[in-house]
């Protein structure tokens, strides 16, 4: 399904609203799936507004954030994110994964990176 289901039951659809301003969200990623498994890359979301992706908890015992859906035409798609990408902290070369709950807090914080 294309588009952004923007409602209170989908907290990720509303993450961008809380981001506001001209700050960019930056972090790293590591691909488990998609076209380049194992690739580590840097991601920046330079625009306020919805990020255009759905994140789920990775079943690894630590609850890491993993991309489950990327919306066509979104910032996430423009950044090159794909289903199966694991979100990691920038500057860690993909070695420190972002916990799902930490990602939600970071993405919705006015002091986000």
UniProtKB/TrEMBL annotation:
SUPFAM superfamilies: PDZ domain-like. Residues 1-38 are annotated as: Disordered. Residues 26-36 have a biased composition (Gly residues). This is PDZ domain-containing protein. It comes from Cyclophora tenuis. The lineage of its organism: Eukaryota, Sar, Stramenopiles, Ochrophyta, Bacillariophyta.
């Amino acid at each position: 399904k294309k588009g952004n289901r923007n409602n209170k039951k989908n907290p990720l659809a509303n993450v961008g609203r809380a981001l506001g301003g001209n700050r960019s969200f930056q972090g790293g990623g590591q691909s488990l799936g998609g076209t380049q498994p194992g690739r580590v890359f840097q991601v920046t979301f330079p625009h306020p507004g919805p990020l255009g992706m759905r994140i789920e908890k990775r079943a690894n015992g630590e609850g890491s954030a993993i991309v489950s859906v990327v919306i066509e035409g979104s910032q996430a798609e423009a950044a090159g994110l794909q289903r199966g990408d694991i979100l990691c902290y920038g500057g860690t070369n993909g070695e420190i994964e972002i916990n799902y709950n930490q990602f939600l807090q970071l993405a919705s914080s006015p002091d986000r990176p």
